[in-house]
Amino acid sequence: MNDEDLTPEFDRVEGATHPRNTAQLLGQGSAEATFLKAYTSSRLHHGWLITGPRGIGKATLAWHIARFLLAQAPATDGLLGDAPQAPTSLNIPPDYPIARRTAALSEPRLFLLRTNWNEKKKRFNQGIVVEDARELKAFFNLSAADGGRRVVIVDSADELNVSAANALLKFLEEPPDDVIILLVCHRPSRLLPTIRSRCRELRCATLSASDMALAMSAAGSDNSGDENALAELAGGSVGDAVRLTNLDGMGTYAQLVALFATLPQLDRPKALSLAESVAGRGKEQQVDLLVGLINQFIARTARTGVSGPPLVEAAPGETEVMQRLAPNPDAARKWAELQQVISARAAHGRAVNLDPAALILDMVFKINELAAKLVAR
């Protein structure tokens, strides 16, 4: 099945290959080794919480684990006498039947629990709802007759509503035989403590600049710019790096740095031009990107006042601007406080459909107000 043939998918990054079709797992060698050690040395835990920042390859790891487990015989778990050799990799050849069926979402022993597309309303549901989670019972009942291991991928557990989370918890508390549940989770602190306590955590690492470049290429999104700057601004997340590349986020961030270099004597024409660049219909992604980049600039400025400037500049002149705006820890504290205020105001503005240009200008003016108090003219 080609990616283009699929119904809209909530867990897809526009312009990138879906994680289940990503053949190479990059930057997660430690997590892979941890899982394989558990697989070969002891009874395999039934629930795995795959954690780490968004976009670093957690879902790709989950799909690699799923293919690997479905391709193995359950009797070999922890019984190396039955296996000719302990596996050293999760890789399964792409032409293997299991790999083809998982890519096509036609493998009967695999269940994908995620936010679904509502065909009638032509939009995604509000998270993973209880009706979706309850389908697991039918999946387990139907699959049991086939024998063999069964795998559930939850992508992501952050999207579970309360009722769906409680429904999933029942299966984690009393899992059926030969079932492995893989929960992709960006912010585990938001999960029910009872769900966390019934899973073994598998922590994923942020990607290095070189791994990110390889991962972006594997995902079908190449970056011709400074890979170190991109990795820095993306925070080691290939998902964020793809978004930054697709929406010219690096160029937008450079514009922000140049604008904030004029503080506290804000260049208002430049500020207005920046705000108007995201005005109009069909610019929702650009608005979200710009709001996120403004928040990121403030956060990086606050960190500069505490621990010094970033080791890698995400845009030319960034270090000089941030050192001037946050010369000491006291200034850093004020920038951190402002970020909380601005984030809340931006979230409210988006919720009530405030004009995007007005939203951006409000954020920029608040930043200029604080700069006027901290920086000598």
Q: How many separate domains?
A: 2
Q: Could you give the count of β-strands? A: 7
CATH secondary-structure class of the largest domain: Alpha Beta
Mean pLDDT: 89
Can you give a write-up of this model?
With 377 residues, the chain is α/β, with parallel strands linked by helices. It has 2 domains: 3-203, P-loop containing nucleotide triphosphate hydrolases (Rossmann fold, 3-Layer(aba) Sandwich), CATH 3.40.50; 247-374. The protein is built from 15 helices and 7 strands. Strands 2-5-6-1-7 form a 5-stranded parallel beta sheet, with helices on both faces. Strands 3-4 form a two-stranded antiparallel ribbon. Strand 5, helix 5 and strand 6 form a beta-alpha-beta unit. The longest helix is centred in the C-terminal third of the chain and has 24 residues, at 284-307. The chain is elongated.
Descriptors for this entry?
disordered N terminus, 15 helices, elongated, 7 strands, five-stranded parallel β-sheet, Rossmann fold, two-stranded antiparallel sheet, 2 domains, 377 residues, alpha/beta
Helix-strand blueprint:
Blueprint: H1 29-41, E1 47-51, H2 58-71, H3 97-103, E2 110-113, E3 117-118, E4 123-124, H4 130-144, E5 150-155, H5 162-173, E6 179-185, H6 193-197, E7 200-203, H7 209-218, H8 227-234, H9 238-246, H10 249-260, H11 268-276, H12 284-307, H13 318-325, H14 329-351, H15 356-374
Parallel strand pairs: 1-6, 1-7, 2-5, 5-6
Antiparallel strand pairs: 3-4
Helix pairs in contact: 4-5, 7-8, 7-9, 8-9, 10-12, 11-15, 12-13, 12-14, 12-15, 14-15
